[in-house]
Design goal:
The longest helix is centred in the middle third of the chain and has 20 residues. The radius of gyration is 18 Å and the shape is globular. Helix 2 crosses helix 3. The chain is built from 4 helices and 8 strands; from the N terminus they run E-H-E-H-H-E-E-E-H-E-E-E. The relative contact order is 0.24. A two-stranded parallel sheet has the order 1-6. A two-stranded antiparallel sheet has the order 2-5. Strands 3-4 form a two-stranded antiparallel sheet. It has a single domain, classed as FAD/NAD(P)-binding domain. The mean pLDDT is 94. It has 147 residues and is an alpha+beta fold. Bound molecules: flavin-adenine dinucleotide. The site of flavin-adenine dinucleotide (FAD) has 16 residues, from strand 1 and helix 1.
Length: 147
């Protein structure tokens, strides 16, 4: 959705829009957005909670990019729960700081999905194909050329 409007884009989804894991996520979305939090701490907590199974490079990208992603979702109209005039941040799971956002209480994923689907439908250069499965990525030597 961040690709320029000048590019024709086709997005495919195996089921209907909104039939995915994101819709069902209830426990909130965690990112280092609190005043006393920082991505390095978020990374350390993630690695510690992962009991040796964490891909550290992937976790680092998530910890560092998470705050930007949350701000981007807010900009797209995701209605996260507030405490007064600021984002309500809960303390969840293995995080050592309060940094978990919810929407509609336990409807976090559904609210993210609602905002993203509205954005997707508003973009005239994006064609949506539901109940369509991508079976392979066509590649050139260095890049993807299609699906
Ligand atoms: C019940 C439940 C509760 C959860 N709670 C939380 C939570 O509280 N907090 C949290 O952070 N995480 C939670 N998770 C995990 C979280 O939902 C997922 O990690 C996240 O939604 C993954 O997002 P995604 O965009 O990668 O995948 P998805 O949201 O699953 O989207 C993938 C999409 O790709 C489509 N697709 C896949 N392959 C193809 C193909 N070959 N062709 C066409 N379409 C295809 C699928 O149909 C789907 O629409 C929960 C998951 C579940 C199931």
């Amino acid at each position: 959705m961040r690709l320029p409007d000048s590019l024709p884009i086709v997005t495919v989804t195996e089921g209907l829009l909104g039939e995915n894991n994101t819709w069902y996520a209830q426990g909130g979305i965690a990112a280092a957005v609190g005043p006393d939090d920082d991505p390095n701490l978020h990374l350390q907590d993630t690695v510690a909670a992962g009991a040796g199974l964490v891909d550290i490079d992937a976790a680092r990208v998530m910890a560092e990019r998470g705050p930007f992603a949350v701000r981007w979702l807010l900009k797209q109209g995701t209605d996260f729960d507030l405490a007064g005039h600021v984002l309500a941040l809960d303390h969840e799971a293995a995080h050592s700081r309060r940094g978990t956002l919810h929407a509609g209480g336990d409807a976090t994923g559904a609210e993210i999905e609602r905002a993203l689907i509205a954005l997707l439908r508003s973009r005239k250069h994006i064609t949506i194909l539901e109940e369509t499965i991508a079976v392979d990525i066509a590649r050139t030597e260095f890049s993807a050329a299609g699906a």
